[in-house]
# Entry
Amino acid sequence: MSDNQGDMKKRLVQFATEHLGITVHRFEKSCGLSNSYCSNPNVVGSYAKKKIIEAYPELNMDWVITGNGSMLKGEELKKNNKNIVEENHITQVKEDADVYRKMNEEVVALKRELELYKMLYEKEHKDVKDLSEQVGALKAEIENLKKGENCSETESVSVKKKRKAS
# Structure
């Protein structure tokens, strides 16, 4: 058996025992191959390859022939998909972090603006209160002045009456 053929058959045995968890004899039988196929020095022909692929379509024949890549067809795809998913996840996390940072900056700016409005409101409220007190005091002063005029008018009427009487 040539080294390459021997390696191919070793990989078939590895697939049967490690991946499928069955005996080599059961593997040979499930593929429709002769007993001891994996242990005899015959070349792995195209007929045998076809039978193996039909029985186990998930087996990566490139791996069987060359030893390169993954044992299973989906493994390379899964590995690539996993890398793509991880890259997409990392990109999404970075984008989310940027959005979070920007939103956090906005929140800080809005808090500052809120504090400013609060200070302006309190100042305006105090000014309104002061002006309201001043208006109240002025109204009271006007009322007092009006009362004083009334008193003056009343006094002047009574003074005029007294004068007329005299």
In short: The helical segments are 3-20, 24-31, 46-55, 61-66, 73-165. The chain has a mean pLDDT of 82. The chain has five helices and no strands.
